[in-house]
């Protein structure tokens, strides 16, 4: 499978697309803002003006879009949507973080076109994408995964099979939720201790040496200590993922009060003007 289309050239999609080119794949690209594809075209990609055109005659379609709304538009628009351009047996890989409900619906639409589908949301951000160190969570049929294992490996250091379509998206939301709760709690603790008279960097230095602190949280702490809030995982997207997680919990009649509280924190961060900061930017509300 050497012919790939990538739909969505944001921070993650563009880096994944470049890795495909460097690995020798023939690449077609589409992005709503066409100028984002310029550097990839110089590397050999073919750029198209509609998703429908981009997915014609390819083996694999990689979708890397912001949210449900963006994905629905890209796939379902009547004249230009990718669904209308799919060929039989093309494998669609949904790498976006979307709701499990939409992933299942998209899978059904794609299978109705005699194409194939797996979901493969990613753990990691820009540095991991650049270095092919993303982690894919897989939902779908194992025989389809086997077909595209080499394609997924171009951008990843690990691939974990979770279960049927919807399960990998659910797991991705849970992973982001767990991470987001940790960052919100850390921010609160830093704010409280600063009022006692213990400065932020002293606290972060100690926490980085303790077994209670996850490697991911140590990385967040490093950014906080340097006042570096470059948006690797922007607050706006964190809020989106928590909203999706709470909807998932509601659909399953599950109670997740800590996630609910964390959503409130990130929504307040948005209201305070920190939506385009990295997730660590929530600490600004407490210091």
From TrEMBL:
InterPro entries associated with the record: 3-OH-isobutyrate_DH-rel_CS, 6-PGluconate_DH-like_C_sf, 6PGD_dom2, 6PGDH_NADP-bd, HIBADH-like_NADP-bd, HIBADH-related, HIBADH-related_NP60_sf, NAD(P)-bd_dom_sf
An annotated Gene Ontology molecular function: NAD binding
Name by which UniProt lists this protein: 3-hydroxyisobutyrate dehydrogenase
Domain 3-hydroxyisobutyrate dehydrogenase-like NAD-binding residues, every copy: 166-286
Residue ranges of domain 6-phosphogluconate dehydrogenase NADP-binding in the record: 3-163
Pfam families found in the cross-reference section: NAD_binding_11, NAD_binding_2
Annotated organism of origin: hydrothermal vent metagenome
Keyword Oxidoreductase: yes
Keywords attached to this entry: NAD, Oxidoreductase
């Amino acid at each position: 499978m050497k012919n790939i289309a990538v739909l969505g050239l944001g921070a993650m999609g563009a880096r994944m697309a470049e890795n495909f080119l460097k690995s020798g794949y023939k690449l077609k690209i589409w992005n709503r803002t066409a100028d984002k594809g310029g550097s990839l075209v110089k590397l050999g990609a073919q750029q198209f003006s509609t998703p429908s055109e981009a997915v014609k005659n390819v083996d694999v379609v990689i979708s890397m879009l912001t949210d449900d709304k963006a994905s629905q538009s890209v796939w379902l628009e009547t004249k230009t949507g990718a669904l209308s351009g799919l060929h039989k047996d093309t494998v669609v890989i949904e790498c976006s973080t979307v709701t499990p409900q939409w992933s299942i619906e998209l899978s059904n639409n794609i299978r109705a076109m005699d194409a194939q589908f797996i979901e493969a949301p990613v753990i990691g951000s820009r540095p991991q994408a650049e270095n092919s160190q993303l982690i894919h969570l897989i939902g779908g049929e194992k025989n389809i995964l086997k077909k595209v294992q080499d394609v997924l490996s171009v951008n990843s250091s690990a691939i974990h099979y979770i279960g049927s379509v919807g399960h990998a998206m659910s797991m991705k939301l849970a992973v982001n939720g767990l991470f987001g709760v940790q960052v919100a709690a850390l921010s609160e603790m830093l704010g409280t201790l600063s009022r006692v008279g213990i400065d932020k960097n002293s606290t972060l230095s100690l926490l980085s040496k303790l077994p209670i602190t996850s490697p991911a949280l140590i990385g967040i702490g490093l950014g906080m200590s340097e006042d570096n809030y470059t948006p690797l995982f922007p607050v706006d997207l964190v809020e989106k993922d928590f909203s999706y997680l709470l909807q998932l919990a509601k659909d399953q009649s599950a109670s997740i009060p800590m996630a609910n509280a964390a959503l409130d924190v990130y929504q307040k961060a948005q209201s305070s003007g920190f939506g385009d900061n990295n997730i660590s930017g929530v600490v600004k509300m407490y210091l």
